[in-house]
Write a structure and sequence with these properties.
This protein is of the alpha/beta class and 369 residues long. Helix content is 23%, strand content 25%. It has two domains: 2-175 and 338-368, Alpha-Beta Complex (Quinone Oxidoreductase, Chain A, domain 1); 183-315, NAD(P)-binding Rossmann-like Domain (Rossmann fold), CATH 3.40.50.720. The protein contains ten helices and 18 strands. Helix 3 (177-189) packs across helix 4.
């Protein structure tokens, strides 16, 4: 193992998930062992780590089919032990969560490039079989199937780090990986172009604000939906018009805002009761793409709307490997910008997650070891 000249400690601060449950399932440790990279891994000194919905949903067990309600930070009475995570399988406790790492490589395994030592990197969070990288059955997620970034150090496969040259701060860079790659995956799956009008739900959140920016980058017209107190923030990101989070009549609201009652693409991370209205405003041949259901996973669908209007529905989770590297390029060229709402010390992760759950912010919340 090659290391930087500075000595690497044997223990570190880390927030560790001990079980599915509320915020008390997270325990802060000041003497957790620093991980050692294997031959194909690098050791990262974590400079900042962003929060995301996957962390909350995994902690609470929301991904379980036994849960049918909206996302919540407090845990659920019924969680099936067989499918409590995004991948439909149990995780191993204890587990350090946290996926959106910006950090510095301080050591590498023998198969990794030693020139990475000292480089600032972002993490590509999809753990893959690199002999068959698009085999979705063989994927995992950083901070879920392996320990992540809510700690001072983390290890990750050498092929899952992306060196980045940017004047942005560590905290700003920690806002991108999960939210921007998720958003770009959705837009790619829906084949969004400059001919589209894209309706983005939850447009003030991490993925939502990334969807706004990345859809505009593709030249699309963007209609955002968010609470009215956040409209000005999202308009600054490039949204053409904003609508309330839950308009009384979505078709009428669209007609008034853009002069037509339909859009070609819905990029949805909310789901729940508004889902039927979202489907009804898709034009013939329109596309619905989804990567979340914070308002609830169980929805009503009139199949006649689906087939008579020639609609295409796509779920979007595992992204193609090039998307992470594309996003790094967008950042370096200044084509997308960070939306950093707040930072917290790692020791205050529980407070940071509560702020994330309360959703009074626009953009992303980051913890700093």
């Amino acid at each position: 193992m090659a290391t930087a000249s500075n000595e690497i400690p044997t223990t570190m601060n880390a927030f560790v998930l001990t079980e599915h449950g509320d915020l008390n399932a997270l325990k802060f440790h000041t003497d957790w062992p620093v991980p050692t990279p294997n031959d194909d891994q690098v050791l990262i000194k974590v400079k900042a780590c962003g929060l995301n919905n996957t962390d909350i949903n995994t902690r609470t067990g929301w991904y379980s089919k036994a849960v049918t309600e909206a996302t919540s930070g407090g845990g659920y009475d019924k969680v099936d032990d067989e499918d409590p995570t995004w991948g439909g399988a149990p995780i191993t406790f204890p587990r350090i969560q946290g996926a959106d790492v910006c950090g510095e490589v301080v050591a590498v395994g023998k198969n990794a490039d030693a020139s990475l030592i000292g480089r600032r990197v972002l993490t590509d969070n999809w753990l893959r079989d690199w002999a068959d990288p698009m085999n979705r059955e063989g994927t995992g997620y950083f901070g879920s199937e392996c320990d992540g970034g809510y700690a001072e150090y983390a290890v990750l496969d050498r092929r899952n780090v992306g060196p980045i040259d940017s004047t942005l701060t560590d905290a700003e860079l920690a806002t991108f990986s999960c939210s921007s790659t998720t958003a770009e995956g959705m837009l790619s799956r829906a084949n969004v172009t400059d001919k589209d009008t894209v309706l983005v739900t939850g447009a003030s959140g991490g993925v939502g604000s990334a969807l706004v920016q990345l859809a505009k980058r593709r030249g699309a017209r963007v209609v955002g939906m968010a609470s009215e107190a956040k409209h000005a923030d999202v308009l600054k990101l490039g949204a053409d018009v904003m609508l309330p989070r839950s308009p009384t009549n979505l078709q009428s609201a669209l007609k008034q805002a853009i002069g037509q009652e339909t859009v070609t693409v819905v990029a949805d991370i909310v789901g729940g009761p508004t889902f039927p209205d979202l489907v009804e405003v898709l034009s013939r041949g329109g596309r619905y793409t989804c990567s979340g259901a914070i308002a609830g996973p169980m929805v009503d669908l009139d199949l006649r709307t689906l087939y008579l209007n020639d609609l295409t529905f796509t779920g979007s989770t595992v992204i193609e490997p090039h998307i992470f590297h594309d996003v790094v390029g967008y950042i370096e060229r200044g084509e997308i910008k960070p939306v950093l709402a707040a930072t917290y010390p790692l020791a205050d992760l529980q407070k940071a997650q509560q702020a994330f759950i309360d959703k009074k912010h626009t953009g992303n919340i980051v913890v700093i070891p």
